[in-house]
Each structure stands twice: as C-alpha cells, then as structure tokens.
C-alpha cells in the first residue's frame, strides 16, 4: 500500500516421514505434517517492521486425518520492531530469545531436518518480551539484549490438568534477561577473503525458576525422554558460544551451551543440593555439490524441473552431544531420583548425515540418517537398546 | 559415572546381605518388636502427597531403619477406601528410581495406617492365621513411623506381594501376578470374550506389565461359568487347585472377612498369580483389616452369589473338604486361651502404647463397612476394638464347629476320636491336669503306629498325630492308636481347655479337660540309693525317699515346653508341697521340683517321719495347691 504499509504473506509447509530402528511407537506416527505455518510480514510507516505467524498443523492434520503431536504454542512470532536507528532497534512482542545460532536460524533454512539436541532441549526458544538490538560497526558487530516474561517455550513443561487428559503448558522461569553478541573478527583484518565472514558469538540467559519439577529435560530425536524433569529452585543460567564459517560452497558451524540450574532447599531435609548442569555441543559441516555458494543455495540459478537444472544439492554432516549431571564433587550413590544429591548422568550423542536438495526457492527435499547413542540403559525407548537409528525424509514448501 | 563415596552399610543392605552389619528381612519383619522407621522427605513433597492423597504419584525420600539409611526411594499414597490425608497409607518402593536397589533384598513394602481397624492388628493376626493354615501370606509387623523427625503414627509394616514374595513362597517369580482392583461389584460372572474386561479391568498386572496376556483369565472365568456340571471338576483342574482355593476361603470365612473373595460388596482384596508356563492360578491373601467382623458370621454367607464357590460346593466331596477345613481352622485357632486368643494379647501388649500415642490415628465411622467415611479415633475406640476381637477369638471356633456340623460335616471314619473324659493325669489316670505336667489322652484311630519319641526336645507331631490343647500343639512322648502320652504346654492357663487331635491333616473331635494349679499324681517311690520299697524292705522312719510324680505345677524358672528340665540350677516348684504317710505329714521335704533331664517329670526328696503307722498299704499322698493326689500304697513299719 505504497510507502505507508507493506504486507507480505508467508506460508511454510513441512511434511515428514520417519522410520525408527529398532521400531518403537511415537505420538506422531510415521508420517506427519511437521509444520504448517501461515503468516504475514511487513512494514508500516517506514520504521516499523512486523510479523505475525501461526502454526496450523493441528487443524491441517485433523482435516487430513493424520496422527499429530499437540501443538503447545500455535502463535509463533508476533512482534513489532522499531528500526529508525539501525544501530539501536527496539523490538516488542513474542519472538525468539537472543540465544543460539541454530535456534535463531529459521526452520526452513536449517542444514538438517531437526535441530540438534542442544538446540531443541537447552536453548530457550520464543517468549514475550522486549529487546534492544543492532548491527553497529558497519555490521561487523551485532548485539541483542532483551528482557522476557518467561524462560521460553522450550523450557515450558506440560501438565495434565483434568481426568480427560487435557494438557496445559506451564512456563518455568520468570523475568529472563538474555543477551547475545556476534562479531566478524576478521572482517577488517588483513586476512584472505575467505576468512572474512567467520562469525563468532556468545550469549547468555538468566532467569529465576520457582520450586518444582521444572528442570530442563532431555529427549531423543523420537521425543522419548531420557532425562526427566527434576526438582530445581533458584537461578537458571545459560552460556553459549557459537562459530560459523561459510566459505564458498562449504559451511562449518559449531555451538557449545552450558546451563546451570540451582536446587535451593530441594533436599529431603530442605537443604541445598548441588546444581544441575546441562552441556551440549555440536559441530556440523555442509558442502554443495552443484557448485552454488552456501548463501545462494536457497535460490539456485538453475532450478530443478522448470529451470531445466538440478537445483542445488548439498551434503551435510553433524556430530553432537548433550549431557545432564550434577555439579561439583559427587557424594553418595548417583540416582535418578528427582531429589538426588548426585544426579545420575544421562547423555545422548548423535551423528547425522544428510542430503539437501533445493529445487527452487519454494521447494526443498531433505533426507537425513541419524545414529543416536544413549548412556543410561534404563532411560531408553526400548530397555536394553542403547543405539537408535532414525531415517527422515522431509518435503518443504515455502512462499 | 563418577562417584567418590559409598556407605559400606548401605552397600550391604542394597545387596541384601554380607558384611559384619548385615541385617535380614526376617529381622525387619520380626513380629516380636515394634520397629522404628524414619522417613525423610522434603516438606513440600509431603504436603503434596497429603493434598493429592488419591493420586498414585511417587515422591522421593530416604528410609532409615536401625540407623541404616536407604536414600532416594519412592513413596506414594495407597489403598482404596482407607486412603486419607491425615495418616496416609504408604507404598514404599526401594527400586523406584534405581532398578537394582533393594532394602534387605526387598523391592517394596507397604506401610499401612490401618484406618479401617481401631486396633491396627486384625490384618497381622489374619496373615499369621493364614500361615498356620499352610497358606502363603505376607509377613507383617508394626512400626513407629517418624516423618522428618516427628511421630507420624503406628503403622503396620507389610511385605509386598511381589516377585520376592512369589520366589520365597511359591518357588518361582516369572509367572503373571495381578492385584485385584475393585472396579465394580463382581462375583466371577462371565463378562464376555474380551480379555480386557477381566484384566486390566479387575486384575491389574503387577508383573509382565508390557505383555500382561489376560486371555487365560477370560478362559478361566468362562470355564467356571459355562462348563457342564458333569465336566466342571475336570475342566477346572488346569486353572485352579480346588482344595487349595477352598482352604483359602475357609480361612477367610473363619476370620469373618467382610471384604474378601466372598465379600459382601463383591470380590475384593486379593492377588491372583498364574504360574509360569501354565494356566494354573493361585489366589493370594491381601488386605485383611475387615476381618473379625462377627463371631456369628454365617460360614456359608455369600456362597450362592459367587459362581465359582457355588459350583465348587455343589460337588459333595469338595463341600466336605471345605467343611473339614473350617473345622481344622477351629482347631488351629482354638477357643478360650487358644492360639488366637493368646496371640491377640501378645500383639496387643506390644502395640497398645504406641497406638495410644498415635496423633493421627483414623477410625471408620462404621466398623466393618468397607468404604465408610473415616474420623479421628478416640482412646475408647482402640479398647473397644480389642475387646471385640478378644470376644471373637473366644467364640468363633465353637460357632464355626457347630455350624459345620449343622451344614453336614461328619468327621470321616479315619478321623482321630478322643474319648470324652479321656484326658487324665499320666501318673494317676485321674482327671485333672497341670501345666508342664505329663498327661495321657485316650481314644480311637489316634494313628496307625506305636511310637515313642527318640529325641529332645519332644516333637509336637509323632507318626502323623498332633494333639492340640487350646490350639497349642503338645509335645508327645508316646503315640499309639488308642493312647497318647504328652506334656501339657507350660503356657496353658488354668480352667477348662479344649483338646483335639489331628492325624495327617485330618481333624478329629474335641473334648474338654480341667487344668489346675496343681494336679499331683505319683508314678513310683524309690529309696535314695535307687532301690525299690518292697514288703521285705518297707519304709521306716528316717528313710530318705524319692517320690517320682507329676502335676506339681509352676516352677521357679522358665522351662521351654517340650524341653528337658535344667540341672544347674534345678527348677523347684513354686507351690507348697505336703507329703503324707497315712495321716502323718513329712517334716523334712528336701526338694520338690522337676527332675533334671526329663520332660514333665517331678521328684520330691523327703525323709519319712516318725510315727508312721505300720502296714502293708499305708497310703502315700501328695497335696499341692489344695489338690490331693491319688494314694500310692506303701509297705511301712
């Protein structure tokens, strides 16, 4: 609508087919509409950006009579950003908290079908809040600092609230302070051009968690829980470090996340217990076989089918690990009890190999194979099985 | 995984044995003491448990017994109609968070507030009675439970029916165990071909939870309901040992259970086990705090409402067996002063004080009405409850025996028959017995062999025969088809007692006898050098004589029934003893007491007085506690 208002309609559809070895049942079944999102993005009065996006895969799955997981939070991004001063922008609404390279990458631009366990289980996700952000120094530096009402959707827990099984989501953590700083340290340095886009960053969150079974939990790729919520109370602090390098048709990314959760007065006699520590990391790499640069893969010049080309074909690989355990000196027998002083450690390590095929800017097909190994022999989908394979196929459409 | 410190005592407990401090589950369930159990739980968890007492949510805590702590166990509220927030029943799972964690080899125990029982001892007594009947039953004791250092109350501490129980009692644990879930009134009717209507609807799987396989239960119920009368016993045999089942029901019936397999509101309170590799089922006793309801409760109550029981009792041989098991129950329980009567006093003596101090004790608004509301108990509730079960113990056996006779029970031809008035002093053959002394009991079919005991302590069964005095087995010296010589147990009180016989599990009739403080009878008199008194060598003044006798009554130290008398020090009688030669009393009685090394035999060492009348048959008598023995004629000069 001229210079006053611009509105772009967006849609994202992702349909997945999964196979697990050894076989075990999941709530979503073998085939699901993983994401069906519609939304609008735009700008008004030149200085205000906005976005409203909603997940409608429940409705779509029900219409198609497909198994589905209950969506916890159908409204995704709903925010307004004031950008008059590029170096000092102000955003308010519901959006992703500034933490985590992978978490802040949109779901349609991920190198793999699923984010890493670190991204899914340790990073906060979306919350309502306000944020100050900008890219000073000619975009050589980036910062985001925000204050949020909760500790994010990924830290929320689900409770059954009545006899018929209705569920409600309970946010853990109040008044979360989050910040992230990224930099291209070699941007102005006398180094070969290929190194100039190396990006490093660090992030943190700090929140107060009330008493309860509110710790972060660990889930496998198939969403089986291998570390259940335990009792916590006090501060939950996240620290993250990230690395990203996309030279030409390659990319290398890595993240490390450390989370510390206090357990004040959570012992049997009301004594303080050692903090719960969660650590996660991944290292991933991609290589585009068809010659495009990494930044151009989403819109290949020679599109598949109508462009009479192959589009862009990319190989991807990732190794990752995530672990829960107690801080400090370990006293007493380790236990799975939610009030154990010495928390029995649980970890999930995985290797993912994948092929991404970008047909054009609208369609993408991904095939991933994941090998997961779980540490605790009793907290596994099938007792006695440590190692699980997952085969995933995704077809994605965006507009 | 890394850890630095293990408690050696905890290791010993968790591995179920070994080490200098090793304790056992038998010690934990020792029913001779009131245990003390300490539970440490986060206060907010305890409040949540109370607030949500109807939920089966587990909360972590630590469990301490005799100074040894098992950390990180799980407890939850348990029970059906007895659930309450004031004094919650607790299921304690030692392996809740660690699959291999055990406490004295136990995976779990039940700590029960016994809200439906003002005395808190009915279940424990019933389980003990089941074991007397030869049926497996949970071990149970009582304990003071302290929660976070505060006295929560007196609880029954009960062994769970789980794999450990199955292994210990049945010799296997890989079968299918189910706990009965009272979903609706059910009397074992056929509900259709869908196995789910039986399990998990009524039978909640406790083992093989992921593959419970309820089809054999459906087949069992279908067989009970649909097989023809002529084929019933044969087709039922693969599913149920009918006699074992009837023994179970006879035990429940004798204990006047209102909420059991033949409950007034439908089947309730039991476990069901299917043996591994078979379709054979076994019913297991559970939750017995609604027993002792009424000493006059009909022995055939609810029988016709329950398909399985009705069809079993329609078979004459099984009906006779059921009635004979009821009679056996009366024998084992005894009546006044019998086993049950004494056991009530023994247990009550232990629990009375901690129960009086229980700050949270709950009682039913209406006793013996399952599901009734609960209220706080008054001190009078416990005393009234105790008097009630005492009266039950004293009356129930007589009622059940007469009811069995009325229902058609006739002791079979091979049943042992005691002669009325046939229990006499072993020395004098006169009526009147005394505790600790030797007696003879006469009758018929008292066995097929003539045997004498060959070892000490004396056995309570010899040649398949047992003699019960008020339900207490008597040590036997000699058995034959027509006569039994025995020792009257030391703990038999004075008064009228019931005496019955059991030959190879077949109970016989019951006779009565009088037990007195003293009932002297003389076996023989010898001189100090061991020579006999004869006409050629009559008794003269100053002769030192040893009178071997029985029935002198209580002695001055504890002597275990069936065991020989001690020699150092010797056991002297408490009652005064007078020895008369004719009308002349002996002035010097050197010793009166148990003969060392013998069971039930007394001796009196005495000097013959001057002034004894001369004669060939001077009567020698002993007087104890006002009772005079039959006279033994002695030649005197």
Give an account of the 3D structure.
The complex is a heterodimer of chains A (399) and B (637). With 399 residues, chain A is mainly β. Helices cover 6% and strands 52% of the residues of chain A. Chain A is built from 4 helices and 20 strands. The relative contact order of chain A is 0.13. The model of chain A has no long low-confidence stretch (mean pLDDT 89). Chain B is an alpha+beta fold and 637 residues long. Chain B is built from 12 helices and 32 strands. In chain B, α11 packs antiparallel against α12. The model of chain B is unreliable at 1-20 (pLDDT under 50). Classes of the chains: A mainly beta (399), B alpha+beta (637).
Q: Radius of gyration of chain A from the CA trace? A: 22 Å
- The largest beta-sheet of chain A arranges its strands as 1-2-3-4-5-6-7-10-11-14-15-16-17-18-19-20
The biggest beta sheet of chain B is recorded as:
7 strands, mixed, barrel
User: Helical element count of chain A?
Assistant: 4
Assembly type of the chains comes to heterodimer
What is the distance, rounded to the nearest whole angstrom, between the alpha carbons of the first and last residues of chain B? 96 Å
Helix content of chain A: under 10%
Top CATH class of chain A = Mainly Beta
- As residue ranges, the low-confidence spans of chain A are none
